[in-house]
Amino acid sequence: MKIARPLVAASAVAVLGCVAACGGGGGGDGRDGKSSSKASGRTTGGEETKAPAGGSQDAEDPQGTGAPQGTRDPQDSSGGGARKGDGPLTEAQLKKAALATGDVKGFEVEESEGADLLGQTVPATPSKCQPIADMFLFSTDPASRAGVSRGAVPKDEMNASVITFALLSYRSGEADEVMDGLRSATEKCTAYRHADYDYKNVKPAADPDLGDESVAFRLVASIEGAQVPAAYTVVRDGTTLVAFSSMNMLDADKIEVPAELVEAQLAKLAKPAKKAR
């Protein structure tokens, strides 16, 4: 069983390589000839904007209100940061909030494979599956304003799971839009092709009922001849998303995102948000 985790990791690396080769984040969306990189911020008719997923855009004034980071816009009564009414967390705040080794018993946390590709995207076919396909690199539309990703490695060598997660921050209303699109995709998408690989058996899973709202789904990836089951859990807390993925080739019927990881991440996320305000 010890060999299974490296095999899953190798499969993930194969997809990452294909995404990079396909020009993830910089190619057209195949529909209107415009640049479609979620990592580039928005569809801009061919003009790329600065990628926000790897760092905070407009760090001093992320909402364009004229107020410094951490100051509430009196006109904004919707979600924000990890608390409602605040602006999006910066990359530095997300790094501080991310789980680290020692935070959850039984897991070590390390830099995730493909961290440099965080937020990039490659068109999926059919397009109704795009929000689900984008979760492989934790890309979203609208794009996150800042983001960090990590890998959680089980200390139990008999556990073949490969777990990655990301913290993504947004402007007011954007995280809600991402969740709506993702939830809709889990209801309409059953199979798709993405970065030259096929994905099937896409179906919603039980809502973990965490944060302000949450969504979960499962699928099976066909990668280099291997069938790799995967589970995803995405939680919104204000305008911050916590997204987890877990892949496991051995326990397909038991594939899941460990609840203790998600709950610990949500708890830790709340701490720096309070201190930063």
Layout of secondary structure:
Layout: H1 4-21, H2 91-97, E1 107-111, E2 124-125, H3 130-134, E3 146-154, E4 162-169, H4 174-188, E5 192-194, E6 197-204, E7 213-223, E8 226-237, E9 240-247, H5 259-276
Antiparallel strand pairs: 1-3, 2-5, 3-4, 4-9, 5-6, 6-7, 7-8, 8-9
Description:
The protein is α+β, with helices and mostly antiparallel strands and 277 residues long. The protein has a single domain (4-51, 81-276), classed as Protein Transport Mog1p, Chain A (3-Layer(aba) Sandwich). The chain is built from five helices and nine strands; from the N terminus they run ααββαββαβββββα. The chain has helices at 4-21, 91-97, 130-134, 174-188, 259-276, and strands at 107-111, 124-125, 146-154, 162-169, 192-194, 197-204, 213-223, 226-237, 240-247. The chain has a nine-stranded antiparallel β-sheet with strand order 1-3-4-9-8-7-6-5-2, sandwiched between helices. A hairpin with a 2-residue loop joins β5 (192-194) and β6 (197-204). α2 (91-97) crosses α5. The longest helix has 18 residues, at 4-21. The chain is globular, with a radius of gyration of 18 Å.
Based on CA atoms alone, the radius of gyration comes out at: 18 Å
- Overall number of strands: 9
- Individual helix count: 5
Helix/strand class: alpha+beta
Region (Disordered): 24-88
Organism: Streptomyces liliiviolaceus
Signal peptide: 1-20
Keywords: Signal
List keywords for this structure.
single chain, 277 residues, alpha+beta, Protein Transport Mog1p, Chain A, globular
